[in-house]
Amino acid sequence: MKRRTFLLGSVSGLSLVALTACVSPTPRPSASVTPKPTSAPSLVPKPAAMRRTSWSADPFARGSFSFPAVGATPEQRDALSQPVDDRLFFAGEATSTDAFGTVQGARDSGQRAARDVIAAADVGERIAVIGAGMAGLAAARDLQDAGFDVFVVEARNRIGGRIDTVTDTDWPFPIELGAAVVRRTGDTTLDEDLTDRGVATAPFSGVPEARTAAGAVVEVPDTGAQAVATALAWAAEQPADVSIAQALADSGASKLSTTDADIGVSDADWLDYQITVVLDPKTGAPVAEQSSWYSAADTAAKNGADDDGADDGAGEDRIVLGGYATLLEDLSDGIDVLGSSVVTRIAYSDSGTSLRLGNGESLSADRVIVTVPLGVLKTKVMEFDPPLPFAHRGAIAALGMGTLDKIWLQFEEPFWDTDAPLWSTVGVVDDFRVWINMVPLTGEPVLVGLVTAEAALRLAEVDDDEFLAAALTSLEPFYAGVPTSTPTPE
User: Fold this and answer.
1) What CATH number is given to the structural domain containing 126?
2) d(CA 170, CA 47)
3) What is the number of structural domains in the chain?
4) What is the C-alpha separation between 415 and 45, in angstroms, rounded?
5) In sequence order, what DSSP letters do the residues of 190-257 get, joined into one string?
6) Is the dihedral of CA 308, 312, 313, 316 positive or negative?
7) What region holds the Amine oxidase domain (predicted)?
8) DSSP per-residue letters across 121-148
9) Which of 133, 277, 298, 361 is the 20 to 30 A CA-CA neighbour of 29?
10) What does the radius of gyration of the chain's CA atoms come to, in whole angstroms?
11) Looking at the structure, do residues 83 and 144 belong to the same domain, yes or no?
């Protein structure tokens, strides 16, 4: 009988605090892997430095980015972006219909909100912007340049929001704990703007090198992708939106063989690979919550994406190598930013708006742009008086907020023997299924592990030692002492 090893299995599941109810485990095909004793030390050496993220537990984010949840529609993103009585304006990646979940979507939304304010207000009016992330600072910059009296209220003691660049003497280059990639460069000037400021980027598109638990390098067949495509095609004919998980089950697409092939990987394992390596990182959510009607995979197919996931007409993705926050520093230059200030209540009327801060202080403004993440809006820690219109409340409730966390590891020297910049694993049940190898990009022995969806929520509760232990165990297939090619069957 096949068995599965669940790392850190004693850790309880984590709900997004005041954000969503506990997530039910997502049914997945069983992975074909012989478990290792959880007490056995990892073959992978301990890193010289480590940094991790826990975006779901961050009270000022409550997740990493929005995603198409079951039952949510693109029209609800548009509804969330609409002004309320020309006093409240909303921006942020969750209000973008075509670039949600991206820095470009956040910047575009901030600029759009600024245009809406300019159309409704008189030059010189006092405008409050809540949130000093990309959306908030883009809006503030355009409004101040247009002659408005602008101030930004930020809950953190830093600017950037979900862009979090860390420059530390322990690391050979600035590391990105939040956004790190410029998506679809043909649709944005972000990469050019970074280059103009001396920040390097590098192409970041391609199929990852896939390895089995034994360390064998294997070609990725289209088994999993075809199963998902079949499920999405079936779902498109249904009278109501269902989750990708339900579409896979009800269409029969998930009924794949669990018998191992010669390489020790079954067809069911390849479906699990498509889910955990491809779908979950795109949304930060399990397939039990992802919409089959508006799935990331289906959107890419409709847009003519190539096999590498890049749209033929939209340009490549590029990874940022020298400081995403440089853009924010320029945007915030000369802007009045009130840091470490949490807005708990926004009152608005025909005569203006009033903000109440967590310390009891109040601020007044003619109009307000709200750019806090969707996850924070879901917590209801920010009160609106009067309550938001039904369309706004409905959009906030329906749209999903996913989680993608990272671990940055710096080693004395590489313990791996592959030059591939992107790694993945198949037929395993480890938490970190995707890794970025920074050696070919920077020359430094640094790895970045990605953990998403249910695994990210669970690991957000553990301490650094357990988090690191899970990451190192997940790296064992890439340890140089294991084989690096598919064994030839006799």
Assistant:
1) 3.50.50.60
2) 12
3) 3
4) 8
5) HHHHHHHTT--EEE--SPPEEE-TT--EE---SHHHHHHHHHHHHHHTSSS--BHHHHHHHHSTT---
6) positive
7) 42-118, 134-480
8) S-TT-EEEEE--BHHHHHHHHHHHHTT-
9) 298
10) 23
11) yes
Gap between the Cα atoms of 163 and 328, Å rounded? 9
Residue 250 corresponds to which amino acid?
D
Task: Measure the CA angle with vertex 425, ends 451 and 405; round to 5°.
Answer: 10
User: What single letter denotes the amino acid at residue 239?
Assistant: P
**One-letter identity of residue 64:** S
Given a cut of 70, the residues of the chain with pLDDT beneath it are 1-41, 296-314, 481-490
DSSP, collapsed to helix, strand or coil, labels residue 457 as helix
- List of E strands, 296-350: 318-320, 336-338, 343-349
Can you give the residue range of the structural domain that contains 452? 1-60+209-304+403-490
**What residues are paired with 363 via a beta bridge?**
355
271: tokens are: 């479906």
**Among candidate residues 277, 270, 281, the one with its CA nearest the CA of residue 64:** 281
In 3D space, the residue among 476, 470, 408 whose CA is nearest the CA of residue 442 turns out to be 408
Q: Decide: residue 314, CB within 10 A, 0-12 exposed, 13-18 middle, 19+ buried.
A: middle
Domain shared by 445 and 386, yes or no: no
Q: Quote the pTM value.
A: 0.88
Q: CA-to-CA distance for 14 and 436, rounded, in angstroms? A: 26
- Three-state DSSP at 375 gives helix
**Is residue 355 exposed (0-12), middle (13-18) or buried (19+ Cβ within 10 Å)?**
buried
Would residue 65 count as lying in a domain? no
Q: Do 282 and 417 fall into the same domain? A: yes
Asked whether 105 and 98 are in contact (CB, 8 A), the reply is yes
For residue 171, is it within any domain? no
The DSSP call for residue 477 is: G
Reported as a single tens digit per residue, the pLDDT across 145-164 is 999 999 999 999 999 999 99
Instruction: Give the Cα separation of 446 and 324 in Å (integer).
Output: 18
pLDDT single digits (tens) 257-300: 999 988 899 999 999 999 999 999 999 999 999 999 998 655 54
